[in-house]
Task: structure prediction
Amino acid sequence: MNVLVFLIPISLILGIGGLLGFLWTLKSRQYDDPAGDAARILDDRFDENPDGADDPP
Result:
């Protein structure tokens, strides 16, 4: 029973942390464009060299 003294607060902290993380993603509007995300998956323009790091100077 002594282990519950540690497990209950840890689980509450992790649960609250997960909830806060989810609310943060909602606030930062990460779920606003599902149609655009679906189109980007099928687009092959970004498959190779997405950031331009390999371009010769």
Notes: The chain is about 60% helix and 0% strand.
